[in-house]
Amino acid sequence: MKHLLAFAAVVFLPLAMAAQTQHIKFKQDGAFANLQATVTDAVTGQPMSISLGVSRSSSTGSGSSASLTYTAFEQSADFNSFTITNIFGAIPASALTGENTQHLILDFDTSTLDPTTSSSDTCTIVFVPFSFTCVPGPVGLIHLEFSENDVQRTQILNLDEVVTSGPVTTHIHQRSDTSTANVQGSVFGIGISGPIANVGINNNSSIELMHN
């Protein structure tokens, strides 16, 4: 049942965004950090899966020097609704600090995202009675401290990946050197902690977002 609802969300949510056309692409060179975690939504009390990535980069046409991606999935306790949040955009270079991958710090307020170089939305689909709604994504503070732990190191030679999350398709091309890392901090007031992250260096990589 869970898989069926998730599939339906991926199929139907793009219809809600059909009138919205947006295409953003970032070149990524330099330090990056990412995490994947399951947390508890402070409002609903339900488990929520989140992924977040930040990388030093340059952007087509905007000259920005860092980019942020954030995706969250949450299903209601009765399996009758499914919510997807996608945030993607340019952020100031000053939001990601650290001399090297041993220790990187992300400090950013999503209320300051520039709509001309970013996309942020939360879409909810209700199955019975059927409805869907999309609203602007969450605004608030993200503070995360990443510490490289070298438990495992990975070299990505040439990744070419396309991921569709509800109304958003992300095309990732990556060459990088990566290490596992610990992370602690908070995302929109939800505490994050543990060895659930990676840090590394991107080499002539790119990430591209397209609204379906």
Keywords for this entry:
mainly beta; 67% strand; disordered N terminus
Low-pLDDT residue intervals, each spanning 5 or more residues: 1-21, 59-63
Order of strands, widest sheet: 5-6-9-10-11-1-2-3-4-7-8
Structural class based on helices, strands and sheet pairing: mainly beta
SSE topology string: HEEEEEEEEEEE
Instruction: Count structural domains.
Output: 1
What radius of gyration results from the CA coordinates?
17 Å
Number of DSSP strand runs? 11
Mean pLDDT: 84
How would the global form be characterised?
Answer: globular
Kindly estimate the percentage of residues that lie in beta strands according to DSSP: over 45%
**End-to-end distance:** 25 Å
Largest sheet: 11 strands, antiparallel
Helix content: under 10%
With helices defined by DSSP (H or I, 4 residues minimum), what is the helix count? 1
